[in-house]
Model the fold of this input.
Amino acid sequence: MTTTLDVDRLIDNPGMRVIVCCGSGGVGKTTTAAAIGLRAAERGRKTVVLTIDPARRLAQALGLRELSNTPREVEVEGFEPAGQLSAMMLDMRRTFDDMVLAHAGEKRAQEVLANPFYKTISTSFSGTQEYMAMEKLGQLAGEGTWDLIVVDTPPSRSALDFLDAPQRMSTALDGRIIRMLSAPARTGGWGLRKVVGAGVMMFAKVVSTIVGGQLLADASAFVQAFDSMFGGFKQRARKTYELLRSEGTSFVVVASPEPDALREASYFVERLATEQMPLAGLVINRTHPVLSGLSGSRASAAADKLDENGEAPLAAAVLRLHADRVAVRDRERRLLARFTKAHPSVKVVGVPAMPADVHDLDGLRTIGDRLTGS
Done:
């Protein structure tokens, strides 16, 4: 039998330092992360919510004009939590720049920041956003300022790609192609021909023709400047990865009661198990419970009878609405049953749909109450 996810127990645990909300796009991860962060702050935790989602929904719901790459405390009239709530939105380029400035010497840092190749990869290189999310999480955890960090992951299936990002970026930036392209500046002229041979020289000439000699020169200069901080780059990534696997971290998978979203939830659950990441449970957003025990078939039959007699058209409409709601509820139960059959040990909590979009703290509190059955 599936057990219920106890969100209050999760956030009240003083040993819980990081909660990561993950799931496919459009299932309410950002709202869930904000609601958990708000509830934790009001229950005494000093909390920061880190969103990777570029949408501005989190800032609006928290009563802030905008979020930046540094935590901003939520100070809204009438909001006096027992703890503290701050929020921020990942700025991928700014985080990369800050990392370079912090871990390279001044001369090297300026060389990297001014390099056109760096300017390209810091905003568009595959895995950069996910790696920078890891970097920012590591920074927040290392500062020791907050009791609890709530992470809202990217709105796509790549939400767990940040688990792979450090290795992928390390492999790419330390790979044979990059090193080969940087070889001309490293060895120069005839030295290069001796080291890599005529075949590689021909390869480099062809690549230079395709992508341009200036790009190769920029790549070469970038790799050399980046070398001085590359070891620290990988070391910090490993440290953050270990943080995600520690007892002080829990993952909350978020889904809606739809086939695609639950398939993605299964993928996340299985992936977390493979990576030995601690899973707290599954949040099913926008469920449709019914308030009456009247079955859908009996409601439809009663509506038909009223229609036949030409009586109480409003009551008949309400009965048909109830029958439709029961059908939706039953469909959602069947879908969830498939998930729980495949993952019987995963704790689950359902969050009933709100009548309108959440746009303020009161709405987030309501979500928090529904998360905990309050």
